[in-house]
């Protein structure tokens, strides 16, 4: 008599704190991109200041989400869940590009253009990728 083992996966959402930290990077990096675009069209220095503060907010929330994701990655079976590793890499990439963008924003107003806008766009795209990979793919365990 042959026995078969059925595996069903337990579908659980992200921890609420992790979800808030992950979701908070999107408006920060999006706001930074929009502020850079507004600065590029008006050259009003306050838009560059807004972008700098929004990038710092994205780095804070992204760093905490990255720390949470790394702890989750160390606790997971990486061979079984490769999307979790891609999620951590995308989040790390968004954080690194955001950090470089913060350094570019520390320059004079005229010197930061157009590098700041391009880096803001790249950070936003990497944050969107991390959110896309993170929300639907982080699931807990399996049952036999």
UniProtKB/TrEMBL annotation:
<keyword id="KW-1133">Transmembrane helix</keyword>
<feature type="transmembrane region" description="Helical">
    <location>
        <begin position="86"/>
        <end position="104"/>
    </location>
</feature>
<dbReference type="InterPro" id="IPR019251">
    <property type="entry name" value="DUF2231_TM"/>
</dbReference>
<dbReference type="Pfam" id="PF09990">
    <property type="entry name" value="DUF2231"/>
</dbReference>
<feature type="domain" description="DUF2231">
    <location>
        <begin position="15"/>
        <end position="134"/>
    </location>
</feature>
<protein>
    <recommendedName>
        <fullName>DUF2231 domain-containing protein</fullName>
    </recommendedName>
</protein>
<keyword id="KW-0812">Transmembrane</keyword>
<feature type="transmembrane region" description="Helical">
    <location>
        <begin position="116"/>
        <end position="135"/>
    </location>
</feature>
<keyword id="KW-0472">Membrane</keyword>
<feature type="transmembrane region" description="Helical">
    <location>
        <begin position="12"/>
        <end position="33"/>
    </location>
</feature>
<feature type="transmembrane region" description="Helical">
    <location>
        <begin position="53"/>
        <end position="74"/>
    </location>
</feature>
